[in-house]
Amino acid sequence: MRLDEAGGLLAAESARYAAMGWMRGTSGNLSVVLGRDPLRLAVTASGLDKGMLEPSDVVEVDFHGAPVRGQPLAPSAEAGLHARVARVSGAGAVVHVHALAPVIAAERNPGGIVLQDLEMLKGFGRPADSRVVVPVVPNSQDMRVLGDAFEAGYDPATPALVVARHGVYVWGDDLVHARHRLECLEWLLRFTNAVEGGA
Ligand SMILES: CSCCC(=O)C(=O)COP(=O)(O)O
Ligand SMILES: [Zn+2]
To answer: What is the Cα–Cα distance from 188 to 109, expressed in whole angstroms?
Structure first.
């Protein structure tokens, strides 16, 4: 995929998440894989209102999340984790939002959030009767620390990571696949929070 094509897709998906209230302020970031050998991603630029991105508000980064050449905008501060997730999982797209339900669920379940016997698990790529543990890692400003924590608990069958007191990452074959998974996971976590008591 070309960078300009990726920019259009990332801007449209970001606007959609922002309208859902999952990218408040300048929070959240999205990426799509442009090529695998070597790994290249298009990632949203840092610090912008993700509900108002232009297709040019993206940056091409390498497998460390660093810009591949002189580009006018800085990549997302979390580009390094996007690249790590794409590299380890083989996903074609990684999405990160600041929806509230995942953060509340992680606060209550810092060792991992258990989801079980729910029809919506099928929208997360798992059988309805399965037992899924969504990993939770402590927040860090160092993407290598977050990446190491992600990789240590990585289960190829579970395409999500919750960063405590921060937000959630979900990945898929492409941006639409990742969105469908995220929408279902957010529903599952809202359900879990409600059953456990509270929001
Ligand atoms: C108020 S958002 C704090 C930074 C963050 O967690 C985030 O998702 C946005 O960072 P970016 O560098 O991608 O704008
Ligand atoms: Zn974030």
So the answer is: 14
State the ligand closest to the CA atom of 168. 2
Q: What is the pLDDT of residues 20-73, one digit of tens each?
A: 999 999 999 999 999 999 999 999 999 999 999 999 999 999 999 999 989 999
How far does the centroid of ligand 1 lie from the alpha carbon of residue 65, in Å?
Answer: 14
| Superfamily of domain 3-196, CATH level 4 | Class II aldolase/adducin N-terminal domain (3.40.225.10)
78 lines ligand 1 (CB under 6 A): yes
Atom of ligand 1 nearest to the CA of 24: 1
Q: Say if residue 76 is exposed, middle or buried (CB neighbours under 10 Å; 0-12, 13-18, 19+).
A: buried
Q: Using the mean position of ligand 2's atoms as its centre, give its distance from the Cα of residue 133 in Å.
A: 21
* pTM across the whole model: 0.97
> Is 148 in a helix, a strand, or coil?
helix
Tokens of 8: 């259009």
ipTM: 0.99
Q: How far, in Å, CA of 106 to CA of 197, rounded?
A: 14
Domain boundaries, the chain: 3-196
User: Would you say residue 198 has pLDDT above 80?
Assistant: no
